[in-house]
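>> received
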Amino acid sequence: MKIAIQGVQGSYHHQVASHLYGEVSLQECSSFDQLAMAVANGDADKGVMAIGNSIAGSILPNYSLIKEQKLTITGEFYLNINHQLMALHGQKIAAIDEVQSHPMALLQCQPFFRKHQHIKLVETDDTAAAACRIAKDKKRGVAAIASAYAAKLYGLKIIGNHIQQVKKNTTRFVVVEKTDRQIENANKATIHFTTGHQAGSLGKVLTALGGLNINLSKIQSLPLIEKPFLFSFVADLEFEDLPQLEAAQLEIGILVESLEVLGVYKSHKL
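>> returned
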């Protein structure tokens, strides 16, 4: 089995793939767009894709990628994110002039670096890739923000532990496939829909879901590219059985202009 991930070995995406599937072959992708295309083209059997973070919110473009590449969400996984500051052995924070990492990691660690104004923050493509380059090139005076797993993998020393601002920092990942197979014990679905632009149109959808005892665990607006300042919606629905979901599809289907199921899968609890 080959799993497409955003980033390289040692990344948070790699950790999720390992949690779910053990030791597998990785298709390392430099972007989410490449990840989605790898799965859509059959270069990878599945993809592990970050879809949102408890601090930074949803990664909206990834929902569009799933739709555009006609992929299906077949699973999810929540990973606690613990950012570590790492560098070559024998260095301390005072000797570090530059820190490299993914923009999201840098954002989540900003308060830590306010205490170290001498350090320049540089955005890179991936947390683990930054660690890998430091180890490979023997870069002194440069540190990376990545996971403890990446530090161990690339032989770097952790010089700052758990440096993110919010200690309970969780990222939600989804598994995407080019398939429509039924998932055993499915109890969650992600849907995409467009309502009319009349007053109360969204409210009717929400009322219908409530009447069916379906928990709307998330709803997010997505811009309609072809219609500036108009929006569609992506929502996560939690249900008890598939007939309950099928009833919801029928009921809200007559209330909206379009409805697409992006995936039906088994939920993963925090």
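>> The longest helix spans residues 242-253.
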